């Protein structure tokens, strides 16, 4: 089995059978998980990209919404990597359209491979990619290799409150997360909780449902997969709105 395909579909909450339809299903979205405005505000607040040679790495960049907005606002070079070729092609087109084609370089690459060679970034963004490395400890140690000393990591993820009785292998409790960060070689600069995610979720959901309905008509033999996808998106949104705290973490490498 192709493990990267499994990572991609898991990060987007879609069945492996639907991977070829992802570009169609997600055609109306540019950002696909992380709110670019939140990331820009945090970079600004902590003057993360003030150094003249600041380099940014956006791992799991999707269609490049975060990368391109960073390049536009801060005038820095950004490298965006994603395993989905169709997303990378779109990212390149968006960058040209936003006049930052010369500042943004996008490549088709598996994040797990990239962390073995990418080095000395002032900022790494890991936006809504999920538990790709298995555990939070491994995520932080793997991403840390790409960041220079004093550099930053911005992660968009979620956690469960300590008193929550909800169980979900994709998330850990807040206290556990803080302990892992403390032992990771990073300091926690800010955890910015995203309160109004239902607005974004509803917008994403309406687009996705419309496209899934179109595909259901075109490929009736796959109806079950498209219906399951829409249902799973609905369930995932409810979990994110009611059981999980969606958070953007700013970490600084010690
Ligand atoms: C939920 S999307 C988020 C995209 C982007 N960060 C954003 O917020 O718009 C997750 C992205 O991670 C990518 N991805 C998942 N596993 C990957 C892997 N092993 N290597 C590279 N990209 C991966 C997917 O293709 C997808 O574009």
UniProtKB/TrEMBL annotation:
GO terms for biological process: methylation. Pfam families: Methyltransf_31 (PF13847). One of its GO terms (molecular function) is methyltransferase activity. CDD domains: AdoMet_MTases. Coiled coil: none annotated. Keywords: Methyltransferase, Transferase, Ubiquinone. It comes from the Archaea. InterPro entries: Methyltranfer_dom, SAM-dependent_MTases_sf. Residues 53-162 form the Methyltransferase domain. This is Bifunctional 3-demethylubiquinone-9 3-methyltransferase/ 2-octaprenyl-6-hydroxy phenol methylase. It comes from Candidatus Methanofastidiosum methylothiophilum.
């Amino acid at each position: 089995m192709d493990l990267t395909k499994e990572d991609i579909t898991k990060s987007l909450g879609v069945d492996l059978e639907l991977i070829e339809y992802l570009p169609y299903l997600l055609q109306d979205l540019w950002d696909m998980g992380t709110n670019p405005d939140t990331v820009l505000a945090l970079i600004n607040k902590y003057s993360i990209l003030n150094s003249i040679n600041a380099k940014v790495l956006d791992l799991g960049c999707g269609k490049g919404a975060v990368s391109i907005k960073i390049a536009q606002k801060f005038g820095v070079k950004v490298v965006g990597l994603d395993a989905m070729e169709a997303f990378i092609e779109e990212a390149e087109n968006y960058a040209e359209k936003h006049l930052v084609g010369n500042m943004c370089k996008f490549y088709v690459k598996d994040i797990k491979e990239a962390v073995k060679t990418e080095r000395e970034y002032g900022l790494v963004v890991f936006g809504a990619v999920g538990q790709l490395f298995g555990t939070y400890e491994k995520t932080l140690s793997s991403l840390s290799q790409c960041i220079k000393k004093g550099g930053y990591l911005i992660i968009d993820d979620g956690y469960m409150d300590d008193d929550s009785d909800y169980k979900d292998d994709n998330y850990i409790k807040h206290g556990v997360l803080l302990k892992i960060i403390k032992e990771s070689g990073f300091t926690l600069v800010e955890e910015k909780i995203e309160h109004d995610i239902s607005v974004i979720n509803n917008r994403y959901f309406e687009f996705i449902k419309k496209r899934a309905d179109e595909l259901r008509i075109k490929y009736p033999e796959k109806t079950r997969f498209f219906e399951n996808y829409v249902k799973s998106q609905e369930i995932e949104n409810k979990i994110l709105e009611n059981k999980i705290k969606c958070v953007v973490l700013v970490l600084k490498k010690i």
